[in-house]
User: Fold these one by one.
Assistant:
Number 1:
Amino acid sequence: MDEAELIALAGPRPALPPAGRLRGKVCLVTGATSGIGRATALRMAGEGARAVVLGGRRQALGEAVAAEIAALSAEPLFLAGDVTREADAAALVAATLGRFGRLDCAFNNAGFQERRAPVAAQSDATYAQVFDANVRSLCHALRHQVPALLAGGGGAMVVNTSVSGLRNPNPGLALYAASKAAAIALMRAAAMENAPQGLRINAVAPGRVVTEMMLASGIADMRQVAAGLPLRRMGHPEEVAAAVCWLLSAEASFVVGHVLCTDGGFLAG
């Protein structure tokens, strides 16, 4: 199945008009060059963000997203880097503060999913790659983004996890599921530590969303997967992006340590 066929399984993109939820905010997105990260960066700009800082490993794609951000009247800043390396995670925050003087919102989206295989067949190298991308990078984010957010009076952070971290629906992806469960636990602990200082930390847990990762997941029959969801379709990255921006906004001012399942009803079924 190619990308166009996968997107068709999500049906028409719903109308999701922005409402100025992030007006004037300085926002940061990791894993911003494609999929949910790109959609969220664009949604932030559409919601009135003053600036959107983009982190990602692919220079050309990052520059293309930055150009789209600029076209939406927000100021973009793209930094190529790998947030599994602490120096790169720190540099992303330092560049944000150096250019804009503050950080108001952060979406930690960077992640990796292994090739499907029984857990006993997965190597140490694969384990390291999955947990570095999904857990270590989050530790780096918390270490460097939290002080910057608190310095501005609190703000908000959202972590991209997965329904797999709540219930593993994918035989052969045990490392991914375990790493996302760890990310949820980290998010909740950080949320409780920082809520008294006015910093809200939450998570989204996407289900079957049309992204590069889903295309590479090794699922044999995507049509059967889509038909098995309560909505009878897969999700668009833009639908997850809208949920992220709501969690980052003042409209979610009493939501802390929550995992918002953007999954088309998968976990309810």
Number 2:
Amino acid sequence: MRHLFSASYWEQKDVEKLIGRLLRTGVVLASIVAFIGGIFYLYIYGKGQPQYHEFIGAAEPMRHMKGILQGVAQTDGAAIIQLGVVILISTPIVRVAFSALAFFIEKDYKYVLITFIVFCVIMFSMISKMGG
């Protein structure tokens, strides 16, 4: 574990491999979760007729993490799919945070500052609800 925080471990090639693995893992995990949610959803609602004449967005509980997790605990297919979407959206955010950590360990403080600003902009736009 000690070698994980050494500067030699965080050479450019190693960091690129770790970031690539992180992104692949996030996308694959999100796909698996959404696929499992799709199976649950189709098992329950697959025989019904879709109503294409009226758009109905996600239910209110599916718009917040607490409601999504409660739905997942109840094996609600829509909540499981929504969790897959949340994992997919959070994957690049975790990548930015990981990059900041890697730059910090490499003592490349200029890029730490730039990455931290990018991370703050992303978090502010998500928390402030100004993005839509």
Number 3:
Amino acid sequence: MDDKTKWNAKYKERLNEPEEPKPNSRLKSLTTYFSGGTALDIACGLGGNSILLAEHNYLVQAIDISDVAIKFV
């Protein structure tokens, strides 16, 4: 199984979960220092970090190997 197929399968499964994607806890703890701007989220998955950054006035470019994840974000 190639990497793209593996990650697409993983994210398809996670889309059935009722929870929204969560940002990394370390990133979340730093939000008081956020001032907006631009951000690049590489291997963004379902976008927990991207969403958090966007909520804090960042223009986010999100990239992932999984087209399932990118379509969700």
Number 4:
Amino acid sequence: MRPTVRAALPLAAAGAALITLSAPALALPMPDELKVEGPTNVYDQTYKDVKTQITVVRTGDTTSVILDATGFPAESAGKTYGVHVHVNPCGEKGEDAGPHYQDPNAAPDAPMHDKEIWLDIMVGKDGHARSGTAVPWKVAAKAAGSVMIHALPTNHDDGSAGARNVCTTVPF
């Protein structure tokens, strides 16, 4: 019998159940984890007090992204905001972050939600929002550069989510 290795992904920090994976020893790569605090840029001063923490975990062929955001204004309570991974780092203008990152191996006709990383959040009464998602593909090193909080919920047909409010540079 071959020994096994267990690795726990830190998704519990995002309110998700702890996930434990078992595999033969040396067959399961250790997670590649990155944590970034921000934001790097705020484009709408209504959100000047928002603070972000983004965790990226790459294990095998999976990329998990977790967003924990605090400091939303009281009028944000109960609202949903689209959040996406973008290709470029944040810049002076929201559009500097470029388009949404898309899995380069996705079929051209695949639905947007299958080839992009979406982390829509709903803000609580305390101004706190948390979201996490895992995609069944790996974001290549340096292929994406930021996580953007938009003004509106994500449109599931075309991926749009309105103006760019808050951006955190994440060196994927």
